[in-house]
Amino acid sequence: MSCPIMEVREGPPCEERLPTPGAEDNPTDHPELEGESGTDVKKPAEDLSDGKTDGGELEEELDPRIQEELERLNQASEEINQLELQLDDARTAYRRILTESARRLNSLATQLGACIEKARPYYEARRLAKEAQQDTHSAALRYERAVSMHAAAREMVFVAEQGVTADKNRLDPTWQEMLNHATCKVNEAEEERLRSEFEHQRVTRQCHGAEARVQTLQKSLKRVIIKSRPYFELKAQFNTVLEEHKSRVTSLEVSVSQAKLRYSAALRNLEQISEEIHARRTKGPLLTLRAPPLGAEAPTPMTDSEMDPTADTVSLFSLQTIASDLQKSDSVEHLRGLSDVTSLDGRDIEAEEGESSMGRERAGDRGSRGTFGHHRSVSL
Predict the structure, then answer these.
(1) Radius of gyration over alpha carbons of the chain, in Å?
(2) Of 358, 269, 246, whose CA–CA distance to 69 is shortest?
(3) How many CB atoms lie within 10 A of CB 122?
(4) 68 and 214 co-located in one domain
(5) What segment(s) does the record annotate as region Disordered (predicted)?
């Protein structure tokens, strides 16, 4: 005898639902996810770093630029320290010589008396004459350089004119441009030559005047000049030594400034490299240790029914039993007026059809009252 097809409908969600038979016999697929109180226990996140620790993820290969900049930073720091020590020593020596020179000159001036002040104009004129000679020499060098540039520019103009006048280059714009450029150079060189010539003439006249004044003072102050000579000679010696120490101090100050600039540049480079690394880490993919959704860790294992073909028959009888129980619990009220209750087993087909139609009518009435029911049909 073939099994009848049974249609079972559940009531609205507000009604009490009976537990599914056999549910207590089926343990959960993930027993490790349930706690003692029945609440779910989250599975700890799996390590997604392929065996790498968190510290290992953050460890990156050291940028070689960092090592280079650190070496430059250390080198500049050591150089600054050494130069500052040398600068302090040079300044101390300069102050010591300055103090010693002032003490000795004052002592000598006390011994010589008023002849020093009387002979001072002569030595001042000598100093100015010496500076005028140096200025004259510099002006002469500038004038010679301007004359050489003017001659070279005129030679360039001559070559450009020869190229332009040639038959094959009459329409060549390159030669025209070269001629114009050479002409501009000649004009600039001519102006520089004139300025240098005028400056040379001026400083030459000034030098001649300073030398003439020196000769005049030397004749008029010959006696006091001889008497005060030890003082001014000693002063000239101290001035030479002080100039040397002053030049050394100035040179060390420049060196310290350059070393500090290199130190600052190394610091800026390190800061820039740090910002680049931080930006690269921020823009890079972020590794988040999150557990995959439940059921996504591994493929769904095969059930016993898939592994054992004989389990289909057992499942069929189980479904028939469940459908029969549901039929008894849901539709027994509609069958009170029937004479033959054995139709629940599928023996009376007509009674079963009447029962199904009555169940559908009641379900329609429930739907008209605005309640929503969950319908489930089981076909055997």
Answers:
(1) 56
(2) 269
(3) 22
(4) yes
(5) 1-61, 346-380
Is the pLDDT score of 276 beyond 70?
yes
Same domain, 211 and 350: no
* Residue 170 phi, psi dihedral angles, 5° rounding: -65, -35
Task: Examine the pLDDT at 341 and tell me if it is beyond 60.
Answer: no
* Amino acid letter for position 185: K
Q: What is the DSSP letter of 169?
A: G
Q: What is the DSSP string of 248-262?
A: HHHHHHHHHHHHHHH
Domain identity same for 327 and 192: no
Residue 299 lies in a domain: no
Quote the pLDDT of residue 295. Answer: 53
Which tokens sit at 21? 């038979």
Here the tokens at position 332 are: 């027994």
pTM here is: 0.49
Query: Which tokens is 204 given?
Result: 């030459």
Q: What distance, in Å, lies between the first and last C-alpha atoms of the chain?
A: 13
pLDDT > 70? residue 214: yes
Q: Please count the CA atoms within 13 angstroms of the CA of 286 that sit on its side-chain side.
A: 6
- Taking a C-beta distance cutoff of 8 angstroms, is the pair 37, 356 a contact? no
Alpha-carbon span 81 to 303, nearest angstrom: 80
The residue type of 95 is R
Domain that holds residue 81: 64-281
Query: By C-alpha distance, which of 11, 5, 2 is closest to 334?
Result: 11
Asked if residue 330 and residue 190 are part of one domain, the reply reads: no
Question: CA-based diameter of the chain, in Å?
Answer: 166
